[in-house]
């Protein structure tokens, strides 16, 4: 939803800016290089899910990288699993024993998988790839 809001704001901003640019009436201002900063380009590594993190933090990573972006990801048996949508599970909903971070605890009939995190459980609602109960997600390709 944030992406959609930014797109709408950009349309409005461009519509306001272009006439002044064409007429050469838009004020110009030199950049203050002492206040300028650089940020590296985002890479695939930035989307890797660290299952030792709390469920809420992993959920936020997935939300940040979902469509139209490249998706957060993990690995299982050398195969990349892209996670598009998740939700944090209240531990009281389903009391399961704590196991290893990244372990798949349950897979519902609709394919939704429940994975153990460093603290809490995460429901992997929408994903590309194949996982099974007991699988340990993570590692590298």
Task: Note the topology.
Layout: H1 2-22, H2 55-65, E1 72-76, E2 79-89, E3 104-107, E4 113-116, E5 121-128
Antiparallel strand pairs: 1-2, 2-5, 3-4, 4-5
Describe this entry's structure for a reader:
With about 140 residues, the chain is α+β, with helices and mostly antiparallel strands. The protein has helices at about 1-20, 55-65, and strands at about 70-75, 80-90, 105, 115, 120-130. Strand 1 and strand 2 (about 80-90) form a beta hairpin.
Short description:
Helix content is 23%, strand content 23%. The protein contains two helices and five strands; from the N terminus they run H-H-E-E-E-E-E. The chain has helices at 2-22, 55-65; strands at 72-76, 79-89, 104-107, 113-116, 121-128.
Quaternary structure annotation: single chain
Helix coverage percent: 10-25%
Q: What general form does the structure show?
A: elongated
Determine the mean pLDDT.
Answer: 90
Largest sheet: 5 strands, antiparallel
Distance between the termini: 31 Å
Features:
single chain, 141 residues, alpha+beta, 23% strand
């Amino acid at each position: 939803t944030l992406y959609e809001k930014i797109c709408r704001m950009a349309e409005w901003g461009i519509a306001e800016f272009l006439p002044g640019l064409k007429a050469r009436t838009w004020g110009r201002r030199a950049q203050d290089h002492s206040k300028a900063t650089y940020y590296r380009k985002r890479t695939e590594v930035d989307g890797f899910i660290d299952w030792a993190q709390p469920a809420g933090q992993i959920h936020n990573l997935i939300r940040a990288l979902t469509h139209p972006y490249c998706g957060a990801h993990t690995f299982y048996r050398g195969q990349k699993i892209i996670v598009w949508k998740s939700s944090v599970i209240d531990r009281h909903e389903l009391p399961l024993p704590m196991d290893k971070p990244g372990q798949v605890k349950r897979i519902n009939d609709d394919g939704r998988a429940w994975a153990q995190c460093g603290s809490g459980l995460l429901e992997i609602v929408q994903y590309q790839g194949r996982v099974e109960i007991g699988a340990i997600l993570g590692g590298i390709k």
